């Protein structure tokens, strides 16, 4: 094999390696990693008797959290949080969670799906006919009650009376 062919093969191999490292299909995004940490924390915690601050459940830093009602479009979510990412899905039914934790304008955790499938749910009490998002701030020390029904753990926002 002459040097020109070796150079060509090495160039192709190096290009493929660089693309693979850059794209890294095995790399988990921060929002996926934190979603798993949150799930593990909620599913292994002892159910408290009194309401607790949401920050006690989150094993990562965040400054605001959004909850979106059913049928909220991807574009509306992007517009609301001011950030686009590729893993977002649209809720297709009532009772689904679509929750985005943010830290300094970046998504740090994304929860999506039915609580029965995830084995946990976080409720911000949108109400049956709510069409808007709810936003809470970590600094406000918002409290949630924790309830376990069958094998699903629910965190329910207490809100204002």
Provide structural commentary.
The chain is built from 4 helices and 8 strands. With 161 residues, it is an alpha+beta fold. It has one domain (28-157). The strands form 2 sheets. It has a 4-stranded mixed β-sheet with strand order 1-7-8-5. A 4-stranded antiparallel β-sheet has the order 4-3-2-6. A hairpin with a 2-residue loop joins strand 7 and strand 8. The radius of gyration is 21 Å and the shape is elongated. Residues 126-130 have low confidence and may be disordered.
Strand content: 25-35%
Q: How many E strands?
A: 8
Q: Helix/strand/pairing class, anyone?
A: alpha+beta
Mean pLDDT over the full residue set: 82
Total number of helices:
4
The structural domain count equals 1
Q: Largest sheet, if any?
A: 4 strands, mixed
Distance between the termini: 80 Å
Sketch the topology as an H/E string, one letter per element.
HHEEHEEHEEEE
Order of strands across the main sheet: 1-7-8-5
- Rg calc: 21 Å
